[in-house]
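Extended Data, panel c. Modelled sequence:
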Amino acid sequence: MKLCRFIAQGRVHHGVYREGLLLDEAGEAHDPEGVTWLLPFSPGKVIGVALNYADHAEELGLGRPEEPALFWKPNSSLLPHKGAVRYPRGVGFVHYEVELAVVVGRPMRRVRAKDALDYVLGYTIANDLVARDHVTNTFRPPIRAKGRDTFGPLGPFLVVGEVEDPQNLWLRAYVNGELRQEGHTSRMLFSVAELLEYITEFMTLEPYDVLLTGTPKGISRVLPGDVMRLEIQGLGALENPVVEGA
């Protein structure tokens, strides 16, 4: 089931996506191009994982981490499908990162990897945008680089009950229709289940907390006027334009 939230005819709707249409609570159909998209749910904590694909670490000239490298993605950075990413003035290199986002379904504390997926509510697509200029010390959390307003597109759907194996999904990122990035979740250094076990050893994860699981090789610069389209197998497509920012 692909759950979504949107505004149509002046009202906020909680709906589902079926056969190319958005169905609201009353079963009324809406054209996806004729609504204002919202985040598909209200996220709790948002935790990112850096360098979770070996080929991405290699393209940055960095070594593979011995354990998951975590950082916070502030909720103020989150942006829905079709929302405009604001390119910050004075920054030379901004790039996208297509990532599988895991949404927690019930409280998790010291959960073993073999049981971890039972606690997952669903999955969505994340774009972990980065102002590369501000990634100058990999031992410090990249909050300035990744935490800017509009730098966390998420959606368009919360996909529940449709992903059999989160380690068997293709990820792709397009800019202006050109394929720029492609990878497969089987190539993660730490699987979804392993990440959840690692985090919940010291931190309780709660319903609607979000885990961003890293990005594969293929980052490239985006500029105002570009349109990013991120796709993950079975989860839909997350699309956001880039505009001049403050």
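The CA atoms of residues 89 and 246 lie 6 Å apart. This feature is highlighted in the accompanying rendering.
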